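P.,

For your records, the input lines for the assembly:
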Amino acid sequence: MSTLIRLISHSVLAGTPLLFGTLGEIVNEKAGHLNLGVEGMMAMGACAGFMAGYLSGSLLLSLLFAFLAGALGALIYALLTVTLMADQNVTGLTLTIFGVGLSNFIGQYMLVNTATNTLKLPEALNNRLKALSIPGLSQLPVAGSLLFSYDLFVYLSIAIALLLGWYINHSHSGRNLRAVGENPAAADAAGIHVTRVKYLNLLLGGGICGLGGAYAAMVSNGGVWLSDTVGGRGWIAVALVIFAAWNPVRAILGAYVFGAFSVLKYYVPKSVLSLPNAFYDALPFIVTALVLVISSILQKRKNAQPASVGLSYYREER
Amino acid sequence: MSNHEDRPAKAEAAASGAATPGERRDGYRSGPAIAGQGLTKRFGSVLANDHIDFEVEYGEILALLGENGSGKTTLMNLLSGLYFPDSGQIYVDGQAVSVSTPADAISLGIGMIHQHFKLVEAMTALENILLGPRTSKFSLARHRQEIERMCKTYGLTVDLGKPVYDMSVSEKQTVEVVKVLYHGARILILDEPTAVLTPQETESLFAILRRMKQQGCAIIIITHKLNEVLAISDRVMVLRRGRSEALLQTSQADLRSLTETMVGHAIDLKINRPTYAAERQKTLLAVQELSVIRPDGSQALDQVSFELKTGEILGVAGVAGSGQKELSEALVSLTPCQSGSITYCGQVISGLPTTEIYKKGVSLAFVPEDRLGMGLVGDMGMPGNMLLKSYRDHRGFFIDCKPAEQLSQQLKETLDISTPSLETPVRLLSGGNVQKVLLGREIESQPQVLITSYPVRGLDINASYTVYDLLNEQKMKGCGILYLGEDLDVLLELADRILVLCHGRVTGIVDARQASKETVGLMMAGMTLKEELA
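Structure tokens returned:
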């Protein structure tokens, strides 16, 4: 029983960076843009967030810089795909290469300038990133460790997911956003400023991805800077969007399920099932591939990809 | 034009709010609603609109008539903010205005209903109607009430909770009308609204338009169907090659004069029907008790039997969705047959894959209903599209593009296809030219059987007659043509025999030279016919 509880709470922690990435990509795709640069935007957020924390020791500044760096990545992407109408796939892939490379470069530059050759977050900041202890709630049996024993990022990600769920599916602006992603020509004819909606939501999504990167760098890796700090989580996030059927609230579940896959190796006793560690490392990616195949077979109209994802919109094209 | 001089005067009158004669009690002003002066728009080297002047008043319906590519849609896109004019001025309520975005147009009270609906398929009617900049703080329930109240005023019915992808074409159109009205449009522009409607749906649309006119809306309707112009409009403007040819009272116009103004020369409105010598006729295609079931399980075709002979055009009539699409696709094995047989010159071809039929030497040509979807690849130029049909004939690893280019050039000249260059993607061509490319390619393979679905849908008079001539030419060469059509008048004039479908059943095959429109109409509604007329 306690193993199961530990597995679940461990899955939540492992799933949180995935959740950020998935939410960011959902917002992007709702605006009609398949942004394959999630990994890159997360890497940029990771670097900016970590370095801001390392230098200032402030959690708020970390979050702010992580968000801004992710949004900056998205801005490059938006400039190329919305304004200059470049191919979305190519641009996204390039953004990934660029973001990961830039993040590693800055990380390496900072590393060689330290005496110990390690980058560690200040202790005070590290403590603030530890699991919260909520008086009265965290001590509850089962529920305490399942619901009330996470760090700030976890609750932030859930709050963002719920807010996005309301924004996209129940607000006026969200309706306009969906219209832009489904049929920009229809949105344009209805008087919606298509370009503005696209830019705003691409930046918002990029920023959320950046937060996910910061989580990977600052919490998942225990407050120590590692190269390739995002480590492919951005790619899983892109697939999770499909698993979540473009629904931010469903993304919460999806992210934790995938989080579970990535930590499973610690919970299956070698005496019961002996599999090489490499298999467990590959598991999330194998499941990702399966999800993509299965969901493309079971495509339903109601929770399908926005119809104009991947297409540039130019008003005067005939 | 001399009437330009008095426009500023009118503008002042409207601006000062002076009651012009005939002020309506419902708050709509009479007098000029929207006007254009010297509107010009150029696309590359093509002058789409060349100094066009017009004016529409409140409570008036103006028909905009012109052939494909005459600049009707461009002009309306200028008014709705999708395009911005290179020069010229637009006036709304007599005031000079700049309409640079659709949002500008909406706030000026201009509502455009596009030929290809601008609706989000994945959303409900209500969500579609509410799209756009936020204008009120109403709750969803309040919006729903307001929309329903407005629908009652105009006599519109719409199911607000229904997703658009579940709607018929005419339902979608109603949603579009409600949408623009709800956003406060007083000037309505409809781009070929009847192109996709059945005659009954067209009639109910016209009833709605007349009611709007009474309510004081100004309406511009684009069409190239002359009888509709005469039925609905108060005035008509004829465009030709981007220029305004005439602006006249509908009551003073007739079919012939309008056609001649539109086309630029006298035109014979009678469709030719040459006769192929009966003694040379033999059976090409024999269909026996063919049944087809749709993917959703409903019966598309039920025991359909008929023969197609050499040198004849067999028209297929029926209300939309009576099984026409399934019939044409079953003949070329694109849709599997549930039972029954199709025989071509004695060989059974039903059940064979399309390529097998082709290899057996059966030359079938198929012009599908969905031209750019099934017939042609929109992003390819003409030669590429020619190759789609012929690349198998060439041996070797590489494709030989020369013959395809020659063929394209030849088609361009003989069929008078207007395209900037052979390599221009065909989706950029006008509807009539796209159809010519497709028909030309199919005819070039010298088919014995030609199946055409709605070949003149969306084409103007000139292009339609070119298509009829092409078909007749093939018929006189001995080709058997199955013509799926929607315009009963055309079927009766063009076809030799007419097969009538109703709910997937053949209600009769009549001789088109003797049958009356009424009989065929009744058969389309399900009345079967005695043998003697066949």
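Two observations worth noting. DSSP finds 18 helices and 20 strands in chain B. The first helix of chain B runs from residue 7 to 15.

Regards
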